[in-house]
Specification:
Elements: H1 2-5, H2 8-32, E1 43-47, E2 51-53, E3 58-64, E4 68-75, E5 78-88, E6 91-96, E7 102-112, E8 119-129, E9 134-143, E10 166-175, E11 182-189, E12 200-202, E13 208-210, E14 216-222, E15 229-230, E16 237-239, E17 251-256, E18 261-268
Parallel strand pairs: 2-8
Antiparallel strand pairs: 1-3, 3-6, 4-5, 4-7, 7-8, 9-12, 9-13, 9-18, 10-11, 10-14, 14-15, 14-16, 17-18
The structure holds calcium ion (CA) (2 copies).
């Protein structure tokens, strides 16, 4: 039996086969080995609650095993950040908020310092619901300084074109992506009502959602192609809604008696 197993002819065949397999595995090892000392870039994404309400902040923190030098951030497929850093910190936070409803995506692409070919990608899915946000559905300007008077002095006192061409702008604070802070940004720029027109704007299709604890900044002007005049005596005004949270009125009157300004906002709660 044993003699049969170590039969020289059979043994030679086994050795030939073994040599063949050894050769195969050796050559396989050679091709898998990457001749480099560069450590792979590993990035851990710590993502806050992604079921957000309007104006709620989402924090995403990146921790990497080594410094990065280039980051791109895409919001719903649109590139909003494309920064090349020198030794970008391996532990960095980014901040996001939303004033529209629905499903959103935030995509990150991060490159390592040592090798441009090393890129890490991550997509975060976000869902935004209304929460307790108000919706501004209509604005109506009732009065302002020198209403019915001359704002465009190139026209005669009897010419309708002397009247103000009225536009208003609303701003609200939005989250900075890079740092834990915020800044005022355009929320809405109204259409122009030429020569006072009908000073009522239907905003119901604009989806103007706002956390009622946030400030809305108002600017109103007479608009011309090359010269704009403030209808608010040269200053923006901050509108607060927090005092209405309890009573939830359907209209809010914004009034600055010293400059004869009055505006009514229709609010949906
Ligand atoms: Ca005019
Ligand atoms: Ca004008």
């Amino acid at each position: 039996m044993i003699r049969n197993l170590i039969n020289p002819k059979k043994m030679k065949k086994i050795i030939t086969l073994l040599t063949f397999f050894l050769l195969i595995s050796c050559s396989s090892d050679d091709t898998e080995e990457t001749p480099t000392n560069i450590q792979d870039l590993n990035v851990t994404f710590t993502v806050g609650n992604t079921d957000l309400v309007i104006d709620e902040k989402l924090t995403i923190t990146l921790q990497s095993n080594k410094s990065m030098h280039h980051i791109q951030i895409f919001i719903d497929g649109v590139r909003v950040i494309d920064q090349v850093f020198s030794g970008f910190n391996a532990n960095s936070s980014f901040y996001f908020d939303y004033d529209t409803l629905g499903s959103k995506t935030i995509k990150f692409k991060v490159w390592s310092d040592e090798n441009e070919a090393q890129v890490v990608e991550k997509t975060v899915n976000v869902s935004v619901t209304r929460g307790n946000a108000i919706k501004i559905t209509k604005a109506q300007i009732i009065s302002f300084t020198n209403i019915d008077g001359t704002w465009d002095s190139e026209y005669a006192d009897t010419d309708i074109n002397r009247l103000a061409d009225v536009l208003f702008a609303l701003e609200k604070r939005v989250t900075r992506i890079y740092e834990d802070g915020s800044y005022f940004s355009n929320f809405l720029i109204s259409t122009v009502k030429e020569n006072q027109g009908d000073l009522t704007w239907d905003l119901s299709s604009e989806n103007l959602f706002l956390n009622p604890n946030k400030i809305l900044r108002l600017n109103v002007a007479d608009i011309d192609t090359d010269f704009n005049q403030s209808l608010l005596d040269g200053f923006t005004r901050d509108i607060s809604f927090s005092e209405y949270i309890e009573t939830q009125p359907s209209t809010i009157t914004v009034s600055y008696p010293s400059i004869h300004f009055e505006m009514i906002l229709d609010i949906e709660w």
